[in-house]
Amino acid sequence: MAGTDRPVGIVITGPTAVGKTELSLGLARELEGEIISMDSRQVYIGMDIGTAKATASERAAVRHHGLDLIRPDERYSAGQFARDARHWIEEIRGRGRIPILVGGTGFFLEALTRPLFEEPELDPERRERLDQYLRGLPVEILHSWLRELDPETARRLEGWGGRQRLQRAIEIAILTGRPLPWWHEHSPPSESPLPLLTFILDRPRAELYERIDQRVDEMIEEGLVEEVERLLQEGYQPDDPGLSGTGYPEIIAFLKGEYELEEAADAIRRATRRYARRQLTWFRNRVPDAIWIDAREPTERLIEIVTKRWIEAVA
Questions:
Q1: Cα(305)–Cα(21) distance, rounded to whole angstroms?
Q2: Residues 17, 80: one domain?
Q3: pTM score, two decimals?
Q4: Domain check: are 264 and 232 in the same one?
């Protein structure tokens, strides 16, 4: 890369439980960098265990951005992440340090490298009424609505099924009379693409699944049940945006008596494996310029690989 193509930061991504955190912490220390969380669940206050958020000691060792931004009943879109991340990147570079974006939310990465269109103005009162109605519908019904209103976006979101993304696409289609692809084509992007040097960590599927199982066990031992109980006691609802992510619905079902704890843990393991498969499919299809690296290599070797490629890219 040269000139304006020089990257302004490093991305460490890959499926859940692949080993992103360990590498990113070591890399930040090696390069005097700061970490930007690229995880759509770690933005929520009070949701630490179920999102595998950086610990207090890890945050003390390396400065983090993008954690604990909003309440679990609030929304945080890819567009908002892109705006915040650009601000954090500018600040970090202004301190003479290197931004290291870490996480597995593909939509967040794409919002930086393929900027979103300028969103049309939506009437706040109509949007609020529609939002309240849609939040009462099962995700399967939202999928069926979107297939009618916006077949192209429905195909793109098939298997991802995030309520927030489905609702946004439905809201755009209903309140503007045009589906998302039309706005992508006819509305200018909000920003220029951001040049980033992207690394995708990968492991053999069986090993990745073992790590996922181990992580779920650790979350239960560390107090995931108590975390979910506290959130519900604070008044948050099962259909709030933050509580829709893997791990939280299953524990809520356990607390309602619908599961034994081991059954809930097993449901989390299965859901997390499915999510990891979807992540890998996303990265292969939508991040063509990424550098894939074998996460089984020693951390010191991975740091060496990333550092070498970074120095070459910014030279």
A1: 16
A2: yes
A3: 0.82
A4: yes
